[in-house]
Amino acid sequence: MSRRPAPPEPRAGAALFITAALFSPLALVAWFAGAGLLRATGWRRVWVALAAVAGGALVVVVQGGPVPALAAHFSGVGGLVAQFGRPVVHLPLPGAFLWPQVALSVPAGLLLATVQRPGVALEGPDPAAAARAARREASSRKRARRLVARSSSTDANLNALGVSLGGDLDAWRAGRYVVLPDHAARLPRLVLGRPGQGKSVYLAREAFIAGATRRQLVALDGKGDSAFAEAVVDAYLAGWQITHDAGFPSVHSFPAEPLSAWQGSPAEVVNKLLGCWAWSIEAAYYREICVLALRLACGQPGPPVASMGDLVARLDPAQLAKAWHGHPAEAGLVRTLKDKLGDVQLRLANLAAAAGGLLDGDRAIGEADLTVVSLPTMANRGDSEALFRILMADLGHWTASRKGHRPAQVVVDEFSALDGGRDYAIDLFERGRGAGVPVVLAGQSYRSLGDEDQRDRLVSAADALVLFGSATPDELVRLAGTVLATEAVYAVDDGAWTGRASVTHRHRARLDANVVRQLGVGEAVVVSRGRAERLLVIPAPGAGPQDITPAPRGHVVGPMGLPHQAAAACRRFLPGRTREALGGEDQPRPAGAVAGNPAPSDGPAGAVDRREVPPPVPSPQGQAATPSPAASLDRPGRSSVTRKRPPAPGGGSPPDDRQPQEAP
Q1: What is the tens place of the pLDDT at every residue in 521-572?
Q2: Looking at the domain assignment, is residue 587 inside a domain?
Q3: Does residue 548 lie within any of the structural domains?
Q4: Do the beta carbons of residue 67 and residue 104 sit within 8 Å?
């Protein structure tokens, strides 16, 4: 059923024109002159309008009020009207009419030039529109940067991601700030942009919010960047310390401290190991042999598998047959596999060499408040990919089976580098929300998300897309949807309008791809549910000494220039000798805590455990021990938290920190 079109609304321009003409011809001249001035200079209309009102008010005050001002304005007309009916009428000169009208006509004309906004200029676009838009943009960015500078050094707006630069994503905006809403914090998100645009700063801000909200965080980095790992730790500690008066979170840094990948049933452990190998269709038969051998080794009677070396030893044919003695069915399978167990053992021994003991730690993923995994996939691609496959499989197992009710979050930087664990990461991205573990994946481009099927799965599951500067944003800006725009087309002949025009309504992109290409460093566009919002990211305040103000009088300061509690927390990250050189002893653990046991995953952690940092690597026999460097603060710009760099995966075993210790 069609509706009758609404009658056209009357145009206000004609009424204003007639009113101005009756008021004074000089008002029309001032009107046209003011309109031309605004178009040529691009001045803001509000300032011109205020100046016109001020000028008119000054004229009224000088002439003694509104009535005397109007009487003086129409004095020429009044003198002429007063002569009507007399025998002789003396016509005054034009100046006698116009000169008294100058005082009020100029302010009135300028005010009309600001009030009557042009619709669509028939002679062409406004030449000053681009200049006005550029000035507004520059002014908005300047104000945003000042607000970012103030916000990054205070504890206000803890859930703010950045300062808004405009948009229509109202659900993410709180005043001038772009915040992370509660519903969005529980859903997966994608972060994309070319290198150097500020993705790591944004991820550190996410870590800061996670620490402030006491949410567990697992951060994985595929490029092995120590600066990113330090930024995440500093941001998480800063967020935690802002909202908690006492206690510090437990931090697990891999590969500085090994992780345990042996949680779960024997069948679950077997599935983790199988994920680290790529199987072709031709190798399906050998895969079944490998699966059966691993099931027999992991499920044999006795204690569960505790290390990679233990599993390699269990695959010895004689030992495996001895373990299943008294179980006829399993013993028969061992005899069937006797000639093939050596091949499986060889493949697993190669994996054990690649892991280098890094999967035989005391704690697993998710047992600390913050777990940071950083592996150099470029420097040691094969071994790092194998480790990532196992760790991603264990992360999925923790999400589905071992995680408690405490909120958690997973952050993956350089997703394209996780070629080994890509499928596990996508599965976790799609299904982690059900377990209360939203995933944030960061990459450099749309293509870095994988093949066409993988890209479609990730984009379809993401609730929000954070776009930084990119050279190829065309596929992604479409997620912001479209808006209905009106386009007018005018027929022109020899530069003059012929009087014919047409109006078209069509949908255009809500987010222009060129806007994303031109984003500056630290600027991003959040796209969610068909809406978009531009923002300037607020850097997370660091937790290092260079970012902590001097302690006020009356506070006891530790050897690193920090209050004793903060100094103790930082000291626990340092190797033993450096910790002794700095002086002071660690604070005792809370009552009831056992050495080596992390804080429960369902509640806030206590002080960082001494065992969270591996001891110094002992020197080889016959060589002099390497002296520890003198205690000193790091150079400006780096965190004071010193972390050991272990040997690359496959290049040696980490120090053995699994010796039993007594509780203090």
Answers
A1: 999 999 998 899 999 999 988 644 333 333 333 333 333 333 333 334 333 4
A2: no
A3: no
A4: no
Neighbours of 243 (CB within 10 A): 12
Structural domain harbouring 19 = 12-118
Which of 353, 346, 347, 316 lies closest to 334 in space, CA to CA? Answer: 316
Q: Are the C-beta atoms of 315 and 293 separated by less than 8 Å? A: yes
Q: Are strands 531-537 and 523-528 parallel, antiparallel or unpaired?
A: antiparallel
Long-range (24+ apart) CB contacts under 8 A made by 173-181 are 173/533, 176/144, 176/147, 177/151, 178/526, 178/533, 178/535, 180/206, 180/209
Distance (Å, whole) CA 511 – CA 477: 6
- What CATH number does the domain containing 199 carry? 3.40.50.300
Residue 611 lies in a domain: no
The encoded tokens of residue 306 equal 């505790």
Q: What is the pLDDT of residue 535?
A: 93
Q: What are phi and psi of 370, to 5 degrees?
A: -130, 125
> In angstroms, rounded to a whole number, what is the distance separating the alpha carbons of residues 382 and 174?
46
Which of 118, 150, 170 is where one domain is finished?
Answer: 118
Q: Would you say residue 625 lies in a domain?
A: no
Q: Give buried/exposed letters for 625-641 (b at 16+ CB in 10 A, else e).
A: eeeeeebeeeeeebbbb
pLDDT digits (tens, 9 = 90+) for 255-308: 889 999 999 899 999 988 887 777 778 788 888 999 999 999 999 998 999 899
Contacts of 260 (CB under 8 A, 6+ apart): 359, 360, 361, 362, 363, 364
What does the DSSP 8-state code read for residue 327? -
Residue where one domain finishes, among candidates 329, 355, 381: 355
Residues 336 and 292 in one domain: yes
CA distance 236 to 508: 41
Tell me the C-alpha distance between 296 and 630, whole Å.
52
Residue 214 pLDDT > 60, yes or no?
A: yes
285 in the same domain as 142 = no
Cβ atoms < 10 Å from Cβ of 575? 17
pTM of the model: 0.65
According to the per-residue pLDDT averaged within each range, which of 153-167, 359-373, 491-505, 638-652 is highest? 359-373
